[in-house]
Specification:
This protein is mainly β and 162 residues long. The chain is built from one helix and nine strands, in the order H-E-E-E-E-E-E-E-E-E. It has an eight-stranded antiparallel beta barrel. The radius of gyration is 16 Å and the shape is globular. The N terminus is likely disordered.
Length: 162
């Protein structure tokens, strides 16, 4: 597949995903003025994924993402990139529990997340994630949010407190 064909496929998949995601995605990186909580909504597209085909307890892998925010008319805007490093802590009957650390590199700084997710590979899952730190604009960040994993897409809805 040529680079332009691959890029076209990714853009088409991202456009479709953004159209299907909650309306909140259109409110990316907005502030809640009343209590200093910044809402950060991102969709990541896997660029590199070293997840083993058959995950066993103790396996680990890395995923590199390109991050996007939704803008008007369903068009995505590049927001930065990120990495996830995950390890399988429990695997039974195809159900996998992982511990992941994620670093999101955005224009104004980085956010570091930590989560433990139980899922079945190739099935979508939504779980809680915690904000454990950051740099730049996010240097004193903490909070939580939700992460949804669905195939090559990762959707994040974060409540960043400072």
């Amino acid at each position: 597949m040529s680079n332009s064909a691959a890029r076209g496929a990714v853009v088409a998949a991202l456009t479709t995903a953004l159209a299907l995601l909650p309306a909140a995605a259109a409110q990316a990186e907005q502030s809640d003025k009343g209590n200093d909580i910044e809402k950060v909504v991102l969709t990541g597209v896997n660029v590199v994924d070293t997840t083993p085909e058959h995950i066993r307890t103790g396996d680990s892998w890395v995923t590199h993402l390109k991050l996007y925010t939704a803008k008007k008319k369903g068009k995505a805007t590049y927001a930065g990139d990120g990495e996830s490093e995950c390890g399988a802590v429990h695997v039974v009957d195809g159900e996998v529990t992982t511990q992941c650390t994620r670093v999101l590199r955005l224009k104004n700084g980085t956010l570091t997340l930590s989560d433990m997710i139980t899922y079945r590979p190739h099935e979508p899952v939504t779980a809680k994630t915690g904000i454990i730190g950051g740099t730049g604009h996010y240097r004193s960040a903490y909070g939580d949010g939700y992460i949804t994993l669905h195939g090559p897409l990762t959707h994040l809805e974060l409540n960043v407190d400072e």
